[in-house]
Design a protein that fits this description.
By secondary structure, the protein is an alpha/beta fold. The protein has 14 helices and 8 strands. The N and C termini lie close together (5 Å).
Length: 331
């Protein structure tokens, strides 16, 4: 049996979870575990690509404490940010919406006060989610900060298009794996609470467990052996977890293929339904646009990245495939 390249470790320390009401809003969130991979750049240009196809888009910068999405959108720092929402100075997110150069793209700036951002109670996060789902838009796009804090993972799992941004550098790939692993086990903790599986899941998350559980597929088979109906329910929940991978700053064919390798590892060894939706070539126009504080798509309309962003946005917006099981034992 193939072994997972990941150690099975515990989920983030916090057991408090964000409450997500039922909704039908299209939500995209981008994470990656490491700063500097271009998450804000990617999500802002995906937003512009969506807007060009007639969609109403709202972006929110949830990189709490280090918000910089406004720079990629070519906007000044708004007078009101999420800090005003969390402090109670404004009761609604609608008053925080800032218009961009495109009439159907607006955004909400993140909390630039790192002290405030580090001390937000779970009740305020739940209130934020309720307000986010009430925003008037077709697509809500979330720019997440670096790291694997429990609330960051919960916002990532809120999305029906959870996107991983990664560059073809060893440190970025390693951090992407760490983020994926953390998000996956955060999701397992959610399923654990839903299906009352705490005992066996806690044992599985101990990489020294004596149950022979090393991969998610092992966990499914173990649960099924103890309770077939519970095993089927657990598998059905696991299959809902899907990832969408974007490689940024690719220079060579090998860089492109790195995306396929990451996807293959997530699918085959870790049992996560992962879709490689595209790559973005390295282009000097990127840093030039950022230096000018202009959105790349608008400042350099003839860059190959414009077409690449449009293709990725189209794939993400139209990909409604049913998840297929990858949690199969391989001899």
């Amino acid at each position: 049996m193939l072994r997972s390249p990941f150690k099975v470790v515990g989920a983030p320390a916090s057991n408090q979870q964000i409450h997500v009401p039922s909704h039908d809003k299209k939500i995209w969130a981008i994470g990656g575990g490491k700063g500097g991979v271009g998450k804000s750049f990617i999500i802002s240009n995906l937003a512009i690509s969506l807007a060009r196809s007639g969609k109403r888009v709202v972006l929110i910068d949830l990189d709490l404490g280090s918000a910089n999405l406004h720079t990629c959108l070519g906007c000044d720092i708004p007078k009101q940010t999420l800090s005003d929402f969390f402090s109670g100075r404004t009761p609604s997110l609608n008053s925080l919406l800032t218009q961009t150069q495109l009439s159907n793209v607006s955004f909400i700036s993140g909390a630039n006060d790192s002290v405030v951002a580090a001390n937000i109670p779970i009740e305020d996060h739940n209130n934020l989610i309720k307000n986010l789902l009430a925003l008037p838009c077709d697509h809500l796009l979330i720019d997440l900060g670096a790291g694997t804090h429990s609330t960051t993972l919960d916002y990532f799992l809120l999305a029906n298009r959870p996107i991983i941004g990664v560059t073809p550098e060893p440190t970025s790939i390693e951090n992407a794996y760490r983020f994926i692993k953390s998000a996956f086990y955060r999701q397992i903790k959610n399923i654990e609470a839903k299906l009352n599986l705490k005992s066996i899941v806690d044992q599985a998350m101990d990489h020294k467990n004596n149950l022979g559980i090393k991969t998610p597929s092992d966990l499914v088979y173990k649960i099924a052996s103890l309770n077939p109906s519970m095993g089927a329910a657990f598998l059905a929940e696991i299959q809902k977890f899907q990832l969408y991978l974007i490689m940024n700053q690719v220079r060579t064919r090998n860089d492109v293929d790195t995306g396929h390798s990451v996807r293959s590892i997530c699918n085959k060894y870790f049992g996560i339904n992962t879709h490689y939706v595209g790559y973005l070539e390295y282009d000097n126009a990127v840093w030039q646009a950022i230096r000018k504080r202009k959105p790349l798509i608008l400042e350099y309309p003839y860059s190959t990245l414009v077409v690449e962003f449009a293709n990725i946005a189209r794939k993400l917006d139209g990909d409604e495939r049913s998840p297929q099981s990858n949690l199969l034992r391989t001899s």
